[in-house]
Every structure is written in C-alpha cells, then in structure tokens.
Design a protein that fits this description.
The chain is of the alpha/beta class and about 325 residues long. It has 13 helices and eight strands. It is globular.
Length: about 325
C-alpha cells in the first residue's frame, strides 16, 4: 500500500513538472506564430554554430556591428538608429550572433571563445577582407578575443561599455549548477518562460537597458519578445550561458596588449556596468580614445544615435 502511495506521489510530482512544461512549450509556439514579423531581408551564413543571420547596407570600407548579449531578446535591432547614417560612408554589416535574433539557436553552451571563432570566420568568409568593428557589452570580449586569435581581421575597434574590466565576474565551478538548471528540458524551459515574458522584458528594458523610457518603442519591445521566443524553448540555451557567466571573459590582458586603434564609449547611467571602469581602462592604455555619453545606459548608440554616429565616422575615417 505504501509502495502504491509512493508511486502515486512520484507520478503526481512528475506531472506537476511536465504539465507546466508542455503548456509553456505551447505558449512559446503561439507567441512565435502571433509575433511573426514581415522582415524577410537578410542573408544566412553557414557556420560551425549553425546558420547565422546578417544584413548588408551601404558602400565603402566594411564596418561590422556586433550587438550586445546582455538582455533577453537582443539582436541586430539595437543598431537600427545607426545603420542608415553609417551606410553613407561604410558598407555596414549587422549580424545576429548565434543564440540570438534570427540566427540558429543550438542546444549548446555558448562561450566567448566560440563567438570569437565565429567572428573571425564571418570576417574571412563573408566580408572577405579586414574590417572595422563596433562591439557592445559582453560582445566586446568576443571581439578582443577574435583579434587575439587571428590578428589582422580587425582594423579598428570601438568598444561600447565593455564588460570584464574588473575580472571578477568569470564563471566558476559553482556557476555550472545555474547553467545546468536553465538547460534542463522542463524546469529550464519554465524558468526561461518566466524570464522572457513581455512583463519581464519590459521591466529589464526600462530598468537596465535604457536610461530614458521614452526611447523604448513598442516596436523594439515587441522585437525583443519575438526574438526571445523564436525557435521556442531552445532560446533558453544562450540565456543559460549568459546568466551563468560562461560568456564572460577578463578583457584587461587583451585590451592592454591589442595593437590596433581602439575607441571606448560608455553610457554614463549604465547600472550593471559602471562608467567608473573607464578609469581602469584608461590606466591600462592612456593612448586610447574615450567618450562618455550622458543620459544613456547600456545602448548609447540607440539613445543618442546622432552623436554616436558622428564620433564613429570620425574614428573610422
């Protein structure tokens, strides 16, 4: 009798996990169908990390824009206020990194090294010549590592609020537990479903990504939600790697040793990545150019695109 009770409790516990997960998968599928966009533009590059979505606009020397990975739903969308203006002077390449946007979302652990290899492969096989690069947030570490692995692919590099300056936020053995939790098929998909809800995304955009709420358009917000749910629950793998710090890298050594010209830009109101880190980088490389944008947070190029585009053209000319 006791054995039967144990089996019943086990079955009930299993059902309590599986049923929400099934419902969650259904919600992901519905939201993906309802949120389909009409943007069919772009190309796909076949890489070791799957098909990578990218776009090209303009003429001139190539300029690659690498979006931030520091919030759910991130994609090349965050460069929309820069592309048109910069395309008058450069051949602008925008890319959705693996795990983001319209690119492949493999069931894998994503690391800075993986992304660095991907960037070099993209430059060598798609752009096919050395190019200028702008990277944002944690993606700055990917670009710096890409140059360290294969110097010569990047001509000049602009870093926007780079993470990894303090070097204390690298994944430890204990962070593997967080990674595995979010990668789990049932619990992980439920947790990610909560994190990628419209309410949660709106809260993150308002409290961390943007300084001015008036800068957050409904289009941007909806695009984040769509990208967070694209490919269903497989979207959780990139988030799992980010939140467990597996994408992080200590950039100080790479920053100090890099030979190409660098320009560092910071949003003064960035709450998660303090502008005080500029002082650390300036001490390492007094020769590097720095700019701090007032009244902006994680995406100064979005919130103050006019000024950002101006210094970009001046730096890369």
């Amino acid at each position: 009798m006791k054995k039967n009770n144990l089996l019943a409790k086990t079955a009930l516990a299993g059902g309590m996990l599986i049923i929400p997960a099934i419902i969650n998968r259904g919600i992901f599928k519905i939201s993906e169908i309802r949120g389909k966009d009409n943007d069919d533009e772009g190309f796909f590059f076949e890489s070791d990390m799957g098909n990578i979505h990218y776009k090209i606009k303009g003429v001139g020397e190539p300029l690659l824009l690498i979006h931030s990975v520091n919030y759910i739903g991130a994609s090349m969308k965050e460069w929309e206020n820069n592309i048109d203006e910069l395309s008058f002077s450069y051949k602008v390449y925008t890319i959705d990194l693996p795990g983001f946007g319209k690119s492949e979302k493999p069931r894998a652990t994503f690391t800075a090294y993986n992304y660095a290899l991907l960037l070099n492969s993209f430059i060598e096989n798609v752009i096919k010549k050395p190019c200028n690069v702008i990277a944002s947030g944690t993606s700055c570490g990917f670009a710096l590592m890409a140059d360290r692995i294969e110097s010569g692919n990047i001509k000049k590099l602009m870093l926007v609020s780079p993470t990894g300056v303090e070097g204390s936020d690298i994944a430890l053995k204990s962070d593997t537990k967080t990674l595995k939790l979010y990668e789990m098929p049932y619990i992980g998909s439920i947790l990610y479903g909560i994190k990628s809800s419209k309410r949660s995304i709106s809260r993150i955009l308002e409290s961390e990504v943007f300084f001015g709420k008036e800068n957050i358009t409904d289009d941007f917000k909806n695009n984040c939600f769509l990208n967070a749910r694209r490919k269903g629950v497989d979207s959780r793998f990139a988030y799992a790697s980010f939140i467990s710090k597996f994408m992080n890298t200590d950039i100080k050594t790479s920053f100090e040793g890099i030979k190409i010209p660098i320009y560092v830009v910071w949003g003064e109101e960035n709450k998660n990545n303090s502008v005080s880190n500029v002082d650390i980088l300036e001490e390492l490389r007094p020769d590097v150019m720095f700019a701090v944008f007032e009244h902006t947070s994680m995406l100064p190029y979005y919130e103050n695109s006019e000024e950002f585009n101006s210094i970009t053209e001046e730096f890369f000319k």
